[in-house]
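Lab channel / #folding
Pinned by the channel admin:
"Please post every new chain as: sequence first, then the C-alpha cells as a reply. Keep commentary short and put observations after the output so the thread stays searchable."

First post following the new format, from NK:
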Amino acid sequence: MASARKELGKGPSPSLELPPSAESSSPLEEMQARHRPIASSFEPGTFDPHPALTNNHLQTILGVYLRKQCGYISPGVKGLQEFLVAVQDVAGNDEKRTDESICDFYDERIRITTPCDTDFFSVDVRYSGERERAYQSDEGKGLVILVHGLESNSNSSLSTDLGQAYINQGFDFACINFRGCCGTPNDTINSYHLGFTDDLKYLLKTISDLWSKGDGYEDRPIYLSGFSLGTNVVIKCLGELGEDALSLYNVRGAAVGAAPFDNKLNNLRIDSPGFNKEVYGRNFLKSMKRKAKEKLDQQCDGDPNTDLFDYGRAMSAETIAEYENAYICKVYGFDDNIDYYERTSCKYFLPGVAVPLYIVNAEDDPFFDPSCFPIEEGVDGGGKAPIKMVRTKHGGHLGNLFHQRREGESRPQTSWMPTELARFVGHVHAFGR
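Reply from TO:
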C-alpha cells in the first residue's frame, strides 16, 4: 500500500521550487526537505481579540462556555454588548452550561478493541457527506483524526468546533476518546497520559488495514489534529513514526493547538501557588481523583492497599505532580514525575516530524512556561522538520475568543483557532492532489 501512495509535494508546483535531496540525507531528512515548502508557504492568520477581552484567564475559562456564541464579536461598544448578552444567556440556561454532557454532533460511535482483547476505546465520527463505509463518506476529501486534551472528550465545545471546521473544509472527522473518557469506564487500570500514543497508532493501523482491503474503500489521506495534552500525543506520535507516518498510514499532515512543549517547566506553572493552582489545578485534580477512585473499585476490588498504584497518596495529592507520582508513574512505570515529563514532552520529538505540521500557541497561555517556544525546530527558525509555528499574543489556554469581526466581514461558522487549523489542513491537502 505504501508504494502506491504519492508523497506530498512530488507533483509539479507553479509557485514553489522543491529542494533537491542530498545524497547523504536519510529517508527522514529527504521527506522533511520535500515537505518544508508546504509548511513554509502557509500564511498564518492574525488573531485580533477585542482589547477589553484579552485577559488570559477570561479567554481560558470562557472558551468552554462561550465558544459558539463569542468566537467572533464586533469591535468597540457593540462587541461588549454582544459579549454581555451571551454571558447572560449562558448564565441563565442550565442546558447551555452543561452542553458538553449531551452531544448530537456525531453520526456514529465506533468501539475499538485494543490488541489482545484486553481493553477498548471509542471513536466518534462525523461525516462530511453521506456515509458510504466506516470513516468514509461519499464527499469526504480525507479523514481528520482529533486527539482531545486532559479530562476532555469528543463532546467538548472545542472538539465539536474543530470537527465543524474540518467538515467545512470537506473532510470526514473522527475524535478518538482516550480510554475512560467516552462516558463508559474502560476495562483495565490503564487510561492515558501525556505520551500515550498506543491507541492513536492502533487506530491509524486499524484504518489503514481497513482501507487497504478494497471492498469499496478508497485509500484517502489522513490528517491529525489535537489540543493541549492531545497535541502532545500527536506531536510525539509523529516524531516516533517519522517517515512511516506517511508511508505506512498515509498521514499527510497535522494541525494542533496549545502544544505543551516542556512539561517539566509547565508543571511548575500549574502547581505554583495562586490562581493557577487554586482554579485550574484543583479542577483537574478533582476529576483525576474521581477516576482513581473508580479504578480502585473496578480494577482493585476496592482495596486501598493495592500495589497497582498508591491510592492514599493519589487521593491526598495537593498538586498535579503529587498525583502523577502516585498514579501515572506507578501504573506506567516512570521513575517519577520528572522522568515522566522528560520522556513524554513533545519538544523532544519535533526533529522527527516528517509531514507538514502547524502549531498554534498563545504567548499568554497560563498553563505553559512562555520561555519555551522552540521556533528553531521549525521552518521559520532554520529547523529541518516541516513545522510552521505561530504564537499569538493573546488567547489564553485554548481560548482565542472575541476575535473582532470587521464591518461587512462575514462571520465564520467556527471560532478562530479551529478555523485556522482547518485552513492549514486544506492548504496541505491542495498540494497532495
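NK: Residues 246 and 252 are 6 Å apart (CA to CA).
TO: also worth noting, The first strand starts at residue 72 and ends at 73.
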